[in-house]
Amino acid sequence: MAGIAITYYLRMHVDKQVCGLDPESEYVELAVEVFAMLADATRVKIVLALRNAEEMSVNHLADVVDKSPAAVSQHLAKLRLARMVSTRREGTTVFYRLTDEHASELVIDAVKQAEHVVGAAPHHRTRA
């Protein structure tokens, strides 16, 4: 447990040095845009689906998030513009993957926060 705390502390310390987590930072407005991009249930579901897979096609993602391929494609286009996902084409099929772990970490943290808000026993706090 101590190792996790130290790793978290070091990660947070490095982030402060690199990103400037000061309230006056130029990144504050960009962070707001990131949260706005993730403020949609379908996009959150897409990020969660992609975090468990190396890459997925639009049709496969549509099945997973229970939306039409056209709707998923529109959401993926927005996530791509925000550089949260990237693509690879194989013939006529386009595969999507998360660009890096940051969007996934934000979504996971938001789900954990939601567990606390509703008073549920958070899965990340329960022991097996």
What's a concise summary of this model?
This protein has 128 residues and is mostly helical.
Give descriptors for this structure:
single chain, 128 residues, mainly alpha, three-stranded antiparallel sheet, 6 helices, transcription regulation, transcription, ArsR-like_HTH, DNA-binding, DNA binding
Task: Tell me about this structure.
The chain has a single domain, classed as Orthogonal Bundle (Arc Repressor Mutant, subunit A), CATH 1.10.10. The chain is globular and about 45 Å long. A hairpin with a 2-residue loop joins β2 and β3. The protein is mainly alpha-helical. Helices cover 60% and strands 11% of the residues. α3 packs across α6 and α4 crosses α5.
- Can you tell me the CATH class? Mainly Alpha
User: Going by CATH, what is the homologous superfamily?
Assistant: Winged helix-like DNA-binding domain superfamily/Winged helix DNA-binding domain
- What's the main sheet like? 3 strands, antiparallel
The span between the termini is 15 Å
Listing every helix as H and every strand as E from the N terminus to the C terminus, the arrangement reads HHHEHHEEH
Helix content: 55-70%
Number of helices: 6
Strand content: 5-15%
CATH architecture verdict: Orthogonal Bundle
Care to count the β-strands?
A: 3
Strand order of the largest sheet: 1-3-2
